[in-house]
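Recap from last week: sequence in, structure out.
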Amino acid sequence: MLIIFQYIILGIIQGLTEPLPISSSGHLRIFQELFNTNMFNDLNFEIIVHFGSLLALLFIFKQDIKRLIQSFFKFIFTKNKEKKKKLFPDFKYVLLIIIATIPAALAGFFLKDLIEDKMASIRLVGIALLITALALFIIRNIKGTKEDKDITYKDACLIGLLQAVALFPGISRSGIVLVGCLLRDFKRDAALKYTFMLFFPISIAATILGISDLINAGNLSVVWLPYTFGFITATIVTYFAFLWLRNMVRKGKLWKFAIYCIAMGLFVLFFFR
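Predicted structure tokens:
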């Protein structure tokens, strides 16, 4: 029962830190240091709980995703000019997702191992959390004017570069992308939607790449029960954590997450010497 409880706790940590702008990778590193345990290095479990978070967010955005995919391919294959005109905004939105995903994908492919080896110092995580806090505080009062249809290719390129920065542990992906969107004058709801639309391509790709490792794992028959509890926990907690984040974004209260990141960043810098 103890191991089930431990994996439930890990599921809660994943579920909270994935959507919230507080850095899931940073918290993973912190808990590794705090508890000095290999549980946080369980790659197979990480794949499973990440998949739980992905399912929760896919469920939340299922209508948008379905419409965008259908419109994208209908635009490509239809020859009717009137239909193309109506479908173009959604087609363009998908292109904007693809463009913004490219920098993070390239950075992940070429730099991920280097960053994990050279930049995984726990004190650097503390500094990165303080940077995340500063970024969240800067945009605390920004409301923006751009709707989905107003997003430009330049916006996508700049936001994509910011998303690549989130490879550094302690830099929140959702936080830094939200900051980028709001600095580019997105409305708050448009910023939140685009932030998580950019989450899906990389997350789905990472899940697919991890499936072979999961299938080849030799201990699944032993750990399937705690893994299942962790998966369910991560899925449920991610769903409600996103609803909380959406409420905070709409009310302009991202600065509250900045306070948390400051507290956690200072804790790391003073506790780990």
